[in-house]
């Protein structure tokens, strides 16, 4: 996803806008360009009532909706547009409108309007009409479209779940409750709901190759190699490449391990990363879901360091939310811009076999070094934990801060009143 979709408004520069224009992305369901003199308010309403996206005001377009040149609009156009939206929209609402100077004289600007569908009180009515985005044009909604918008339970700003729903013991669990289970698994998961009418029954063919290519460009392999080296105490560690180990029309599962040339569960000590991409939420599917699990097999008596516990989340959350989910969304439903996804993190300890080989419950304190978190109070079990990342910290994304805030909340729920992470 281009940085223009998510960087803070203070970091939106003319160079960044020009970089986007140079990509020659055609007008689409989620991108539109308006010349000086055009009326952009209908485009704002249409994008808001559909998938959201980016609107550029002051950009000429060439053939077939391809942007050609930044010409800008006079100073004062931002205030004019904001006032029009304030008086013309029912209910009153305004998206983020960023003013970017675009000439040396300082009398011209290009407006970048960012519309996050999750914040829109839909349907937005403009002067008695409801506009929607159809392909690369704005149209007044017919009766059927109006009924869909009015009946759509997502027509109000999307609620953010307060409880993490995709825990390691209840959803796509990596635990088999036998002696080969990992000692601890850390999960990052990101989910995007599909709009009514855009549900899917299958993934497009060729998606697996795109996911594998994207994974090769992430920090996953360096993290796995470094983790593997520390687990064995130095020397050399063999890692398998990302391998597609399961595939259906609605689900892909990929795996990379520090040990085992066939990609199977590594011997102790070792680590493995498992990425699962799914169409979820019924038939046809109404959600896109990306899971990223990091499973660790420890040497007896040596817990996972808290620094690695943190680093796995710091690296895996951007992989699912900022790279893989946008890729899967664009391939599946054609979105180049998308609502802020719901992103969760989870941690769980595996069962420990007793002297007879039967699995017994274990605690995260046994497998993750938590002494630096401080004194724990209460006797509650901490075999697992999960938390939803705060929306305010993921849109625009501040991943490390969002992860740390979620982990502090998780640690407090475990009984650490003043957790101190490194």
UniProtKB/TrEMBL annotation:
Domain Schlafen AlbA-2, residue spans: 27-142
A Pfam family annotated for this UniProt entry: SLFN_AlbA_2
UniProt-listed InterPro entries: Schlafen_AlbA_2_dom, Schlafen_AlbA_2_dom_sf
Entry superkingdom: Bacteria
Protein name as annotated: Schlafen AlbA-2 domain-containing protein
């Amino acid at each position: 996803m281009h940085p223009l979709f998510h960087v803070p408004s203070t970091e939106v520069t003319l160079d960044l806008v020009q970089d986007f224009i140079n990509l020659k992305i055609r007008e689409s369901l989620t991108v539109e360009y308006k010349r000086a003199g055009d009326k952009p308010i209908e485009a704002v309403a249409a994008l808001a009532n559909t998938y959201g996206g980016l609107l550029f005001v002051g950009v000429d377009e060439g053939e077939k909706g391809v942007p050609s040149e930044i010409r800008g609009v006079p100073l004062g156009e931002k205030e004019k547009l904001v006032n029009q939206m304030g008086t013309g929209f029912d209910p009153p609402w305004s998206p983020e409108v960023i003013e970017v100077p675009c000439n040396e004289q300082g009398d011209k600007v290009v407006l970048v309007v960012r519309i996050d569908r999750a914040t829109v009180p839909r349907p937005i009515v403009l002067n008695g009409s409801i506009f929607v985005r159809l392909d690369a044009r704005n149209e007044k909604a017919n009766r059927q479209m109006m009924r869909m918008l009015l009946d759509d339970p997502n027509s109000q700003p999307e609620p953010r779940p307060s409880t993490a729903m995709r825990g390691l013991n209840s959803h796509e669990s990596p635990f088999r409750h036998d002696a080969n289970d990992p000692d601890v698994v850390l999960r990052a998961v990101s989910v995007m709901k599909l709009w009514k009418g855009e549900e899917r029954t299958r993934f497009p063919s060729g998606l697996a190759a795109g996911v594998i290519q994207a994974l090769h460009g992430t920090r996953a392999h360096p993290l796995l190699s470094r983790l593997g080296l520390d687990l064995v105490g130095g020397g050399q560690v063999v890692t398998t490449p990302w391998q597609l180990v399961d595939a259906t029309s609605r689900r892909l599962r990929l795996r990379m391990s520090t040990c085992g040339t066939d990609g199977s569960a590594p011997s102790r000590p070792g680590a493995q990363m498992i990425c699962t991409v799914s169409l979820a939420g019924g038939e046809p599917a109404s959600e896109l879901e990306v899971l990223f699990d990091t499973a660790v097999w420890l040497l007896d008596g040596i817990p996972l360091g808290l620094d690695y516990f943190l680093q796995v989340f710091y690296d895996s959350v951007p992989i699912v939310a900022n790279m893989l989910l946008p890729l899967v969304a664009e391939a599946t439903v054609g979105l180049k811009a998308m609502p802020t996804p719901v992103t969760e993190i989870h941690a769980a300890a595996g069962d420990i076999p007793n002297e007879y080989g039967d699995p017994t419950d274990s605690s995260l304190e046994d497998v993750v070094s938590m002494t630096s978190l401080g004194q724990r109070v209460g006797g509650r079990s901490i075999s697992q934990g999960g938390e939803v990342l705060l929306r305010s910290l993921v849109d625009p994304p501040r991943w490390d801060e969002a992860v740390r805030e979620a982990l502090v909340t998780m640690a407090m729920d475990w009984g650490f009143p003043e957790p101190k992470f490194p």
